[in-house]
Every structure is written in structure tokens, then in C-alpha cells.
Amino acid sequence: MKAKEIKQMTKDELDHQIGEFFRERLNLRVQAKTGQLQNSARISQIRRDIARIKTELRSRELNNTGKK
Prior knowledge:
This protein has helices at 3-8, 11-34, 41-65. By secondary structure, the chain is mainly alpha-helical. It has a single domain (3-62), classed as Helix Hairpins.
């Protein structure tokens, strides 16, 4: 997921998307432990996407409160 796409999403969409990423990350971790994981790079990709979403949410929060 690109940062540009994230900036265009609403807060509700971002909250939903981050929940989906957490669920997918959990499933991939379980697959890795049981030896069924096909694409190990997907775990780090999801981690980065979660970080991008959290960064955008925090940025919006700071902009709304007027803090730097």
C-alpha cells in the first residue's frame, strides 16, 4: 500500500484497514510457525503498511489538535 493511497482514505477506512493487516499478520505468523508460509516477505510488507497507517493517523491527530 502506497502512502498516497493512505492519505486519501478516511479515518474509518484506515482503522478498518489496520485491523485487517493485524489479522493477516497473525495468520502469517501462525503459518510461519507451522511451516506453511509461502511468501515470507509479506510479513515485513504488512509491518511497513501498519507503520504507514499509524504514522498517517498520528499526523492527522496532531494536525487536528494544533500541536507540532
